[in-house]
Amino acid sequence: MEIDELTGPERRVWEAFPRGRTVDLSAAAERSVRARVLRALLLTSPAEDGEIPALRLRGTRITGEFNLHSGAVRAPVSLRECVFEETPVLYGAEFRQLSLSGCRMPGLWAATLRVAGALRLNDCRVPGSVGLSGARIGGALFLDRAELGTRATAGEPEAAAAEREGGSLKLDHATVGEDLQATRLTVHGRTRLDGLTVAGLVRLDGARLLYPGGGNTALHAETLTVGTDLHAMRLHAEGRVNLRGATVPGQLNLAYARLSNPGGVALRASSCTAAEFWLRDAPPVQGTVNLRRARFELLHIRPEVWPAQVQLDGLTYTALTPVLPAADRLRVLAREADGYVPFAYEQLATAYRHIGDDAAARTVQLAKERRHRATRPLYGRLWGHLQDATVGYGFRPMRAAGWLVGLLLVGALAYGLHPPRPLKADEAPEFNPLAYALDLLLPVVDFGQEKSYAPEGGYQWLAYLLVVAGWVLATTFVTGVNRAVTRN
Question: What is the pTM of this model?
Answer without folding.
Answer: 0.81
